[in-house]
Amino acid sequence: xxxxxxxxxxxxxxxxRWGPFRALAFRDPVDRTEHLALVHGPVHGHGDVPVRxxxxxxxxxxxxALRCECGDQLNAALQRITAADRGVLVYxxxxxxxxxxxxxxxxxxxxxxxxxLDTVDSATALGxxxxxxxxxxxxxxxxxxGVASVRxxxxxxxxxxxxxxxxxxxxxxxPLVAPVRPENLPYLQAxxxxxxxxxxxxxxxxx
Length: 207
Hints:
Layout: E1 8-16, E2 19-27, E3 34-40, E4 49-55, H1 58-62, H2 70-83, E5 87-92, H3 96-99, H4 102-115, H5 121-124, H6 136-145, E6 150-153, H7 157-165, E7 170-174, H8 185-195
Parallel strand pairs: 4-5, 4-6, 6-7
Antiparallel strand pairs: 1-2, 2-3, 3-5
């Protein structure tokens, strides 16, 4: 079990459109990357805390890109956390494109446009790994916050398993299904069919 505390951390109140949070910025002692946690309500010593472990996605989170569902999931998670009166959103930086980085992510998008490849094949066509994300920083932060157990807001069973391998008790995994659009349907189908995500999808957005 990994109980390393953040090497460096800073905390401040943060008012958002979803409600008030404690913003905890921290530099992970292992990967040396700066990550962010938004904490709503009391979580220390509590179990079944709603937790979203969110991978950085500049295009989806900040720019409103429709090809992925990242921005929709981020918004939905913050809404669920505030509605539950407690919870944590861990925003993991360095996870762009499932860990390949922004430049290579855009290269994969170009292959998807020009060659019709999906999100998996466009990565492997460039000799890139499909997923190299490390959830250790999220686990270390949840331990630091004293969260006893989590209800993980995710469609990805592998994410729950990864947190458990780092000593986080996951009592449940609650799906976080975003609206299906023509722009994101191929991406969502690839995540369901090739990456094992729990996504009930129509074959077309109008089905």
